[in-house]
């Protein structure tokens, strides 16, 4: 199929229902589950997939006994499908908001360390000036917000790049540091200690971020420098709310951003341990997709983030 014929086939035959099926297949890797997700019968979904692959001129998924897996070209088609559906969803939400007298939507991803300070102050001022702007905040870790940004499910993010090549896809502007604190609940046996070393803590239970997170990587590097192994008793948790609840109901130790635990320390619900850690953790910043023009509300929100950031102390 020549280039013009391919373009004609795609324009004339691809529908948003087809794109929804592709995304559902990518999520479920199973035709029956994907059909259920978009509310069609499995035979119809099978025909739709055949029509889609015929329009593209190549297979998008490999079929085997373990399920369906995207081909290399299929990954490119799936990325387009996700972008298109995300754009349509944002357009529909924005249109509905305007129909009801609102003023658009802004969707932001943010790591937990940015939420109590920079993000909260910027959102508060934004909403005081534009009360009808619909603001959504998603994510808690850098890998979560980078994935959301990649999938075009958010307009911009506060976080960190998590792999060496992501600078090819995203622009990063540093905003603030994120001091880390080792904390335990107030009744913890270690809470009264005035001197501690990291090697005295590894035998205790720990609540840690997933291994792919920058904070967890930093913790593992600290252990390596001290000649220590990863604690044997750990819970991996990406949720700040769940981490704080687990901390207050167990003998676990956790490493958390100072901005997140500040109020808990003041209320003496948590106690900071006298062990310095995370000094070399790079600051978080503004992440946005390269070469993309943002909406006016998004650009104004970025200006507010810069206003409230600690960039002058960076």
From TrEMBL:
InterPro entries associated with the record: GbpR_PBP2, HTH-type_LysR_regulators, LysR_HTH_N, LysR_subst-bd, WH-like_DNA-bd_sf, WH_DNA-bd_sf
Keyword Thylakoid carried by entry: no
GO cellular component assignments: cytosol
One MF annotation (Gene Ontology) recorded for this entry: DNA binding
Entry keyword set: DNA-binding, Transcription, Transcription regulation
Domain HTH lysR-type: 14-71
Family: Belongs to the LysR transcriptional regulatory family.
Protein name stated in the entry: HTH lysR-type domain-containing protein
High-level lineage: Bacteria, Pseudomonadati, Pseudomonadota, Betaproteobacteria, Burkholderiales
